[in-house]
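lol forgot to send this yesterday, sorry. struct tokens for the thing we talked abt
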């Protein structure tokens, strides 16, 4: 398993490249703590909705209330 500095490679101040980790037929990407703090996720249990756009962009939407 490769350990990248802070689990991400800095591409610029605004963008961070992340490595994906494979577990069977699922993939894991770690979200930076700075993003978690910026959007105010303090709950232990949250849901993330995923969507694949027509241009093959993956959108992840944080659902705080369910």
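and heres what i got for the seq, position by position
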């Amino acid at each position: 398993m490769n350990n990248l500095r802070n689990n991400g490679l800095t591409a610029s101040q605004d963008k961070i490249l992340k490595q994906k980790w494979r577990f069977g037929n699922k993939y894991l990407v770690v979200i930076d703590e700075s993003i978690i703090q910026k959007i105010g996720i303090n709950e232990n249990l949250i849901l993330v909705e995923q969507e694949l756009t027509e241009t093959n962009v993956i959108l992840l939407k944080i659902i705080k209330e369910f």
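Residues 5-63 form one domain. anyway ping me if u want another try
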